[in-house]
Amino acid sequence: MLRKLGFLTIGLFDEADPARGHESTLEIIELGERLGFDSAWLRHRHLQFGISSPVAVLAAASQRTSRIELGTAVIPLGWENPLRLAEDLATVDLLSGGRLNPGLSVGPPMNFDRVKDAIYPDTADAEDFSYARVERLLSSVRGEQVTDFEGTVGFEQFSRRVQPHSPGLASRLWYGGGSLRSAQWAGEHGMNFLTSSVVKAEESEDFAEIQLSHVRAFRAAHPDGDKARVSQGLVVIPTDSASAEQRAKYRAYAEQRTPRTRSPQGPARMMFAPDIVGSSAEIAERLEGHAAFREIDEVAFALPFTFDHDDYVQILTDMATHLGPALGWRPGL
Fold first, then answer.
1. pTM of the model
2. Which CATH number fits domain 4-326: 3.40.50.2300, 3.20.20.30, 3.40.630.10, 3.30.1330.30?
3. Mind listing the pLDDT tens digit for each residue in 154-165?
4. Coil, helix or strand at residue 76
5. What Rg value do the Cα atoms of the chain yield, rounded?
């Protein structure tokens, strides 16, 4: 039985009119709340025509919604100062009334050799992009001491911990991982775990089997065991109310992406899950046969990156009114 239904969007925009693209994303989040979705997640993109500042967008969304949880999937910490990010996350969490679910990942920024001089002109070779970067963020979000100075200077007061502090935020931090090591690490550090449509082929070349091994490794390492939270982020495209033109576009999109799902890709041996296109009944049947899906009760289905606003309205509406109920979910209205 599916307990929580969410969706993920990249928030694409036209370079000539970026405001409209961001407004479209906010409207989609508002629609998600009206439809009863439990969560809305934003993907992170730098130097591209997608949302580069999801925390800022979610701050705006927090003022236009009242119930839906707001997440990032994921913020690549290689671009961030953990202490400064902790300040932003706590601020938005308070503005949202405790609805923020930050998803994080580590590793060097994408295309690091080409951007390192712009991001870290003096410290690129010394930056630590390991899990230690997440630990720094965790410490700050949990309200642990970050400086030995505390007191008053003139009329100004200073704190030893990051301000503002949002007490419940640490329990809503997620790690987005695609390997056994990352799954185990997230569990050992008491985080929640985001598993997406991309995993590393380590012990198998069957996507569902790989993802299942990650879910089990995470929960085996987590203090909460089988109750530890896992969210799955496959690409599913229900067509119940789609027009003939939309159905053709959706199937062409999935077919174009299918070849990469047949074998591990690149030196890292990444495996991609096939996009699932069809009626909600057909998608539900496919998901119920998916080994990893059977062991989770939360999803954040990823919206295709290049579709139009009206397409997203149709897809989300079908998810909430057809697919979710077919999976045992009930809207949180």
1. 0.96
2. 3.20.20.30
3. 999 999 999 999
4. strand
5. 20
